[in-house]
Predict the 3D structure of the following.
Amino acid sequence: MVLAIVGTIGSLAYPVFYSYPHRFDAAKAAVADPGASVDTPWGPLTAADRDLVVRVRLAGLWEIPAGRQAIERAPTEAIKEAGDHLVAGHTDLDKRVRTVAADLAIALPNQPNAQQQGWLAELSAAQGEDYERKFANLLRSAHGKVFQAVAQVRSSTRNSLVRELATAANQTVLDHITMLEKTGKVDFDAIANDMAPT
C-alpha cells in the first residue's frame, strides 16, 4: 500500500518537476546577465518582463497595508472604499504574481522597497485631511507610474504568462486609479508634475 501511494505521488510529481528541464534557466540568466532574454515554455522572458513581475509584487507589498490602514482609519467613506479596492485587487494580483514567478523562476521581494516603506511611514504619521490628501496622492502617483509600465510590457511581451499578468494588473490599476480619483483628494497638477519626464 505504501509503495502504491509513493508511486502515485511520484507519477503526479514527475510532470511538474521533470517535464520542463530548463525551468531554472530564467533565474540563472537573470543572475548572469540581468538584461538577458531566455526561452521558456510560455515564450521568451525578457528583462522588462521580469521587472514587471517584480514591480507587481512590490506594489502589493505596500498597497495592501496602505489599503488596510485606510479601512481602519476611514476618515471618509470614499477613502475606506478606495482602501477596500486596494486590498482586494492586490490580494488577487499577489496570488497571480507568485504563481507566475514560480513558473518562470523569478525571485520576488518579501518586503516593500525603501521608497515604499517611506510612503507607508508618511501615511502612518498623517492625520485627518492631511492623511486623506497623502493617501490619495501617493497612491494615485504610484499607480500612474505602474500603469505606464504595465501598458508597455503588455503591448510588447511575447511571454503568455507575463501578458496574462499584465492584463490583470492593467484592470486592477485602472480600478484603483478610478477609486482614488473618486475620493476628491487627488491633486492632478502635482501628479502631472511628478509624472513629467526629467
Remarks:
- The CA atoms of residues 1 and 7 lie 10 Å apart.
- Residues 128-156 form the longest helix (29 residues).
- The two ends are 68 Å apart (CA to CA).
- Confidence is low (pLDDT under 50) at residues 16-22.
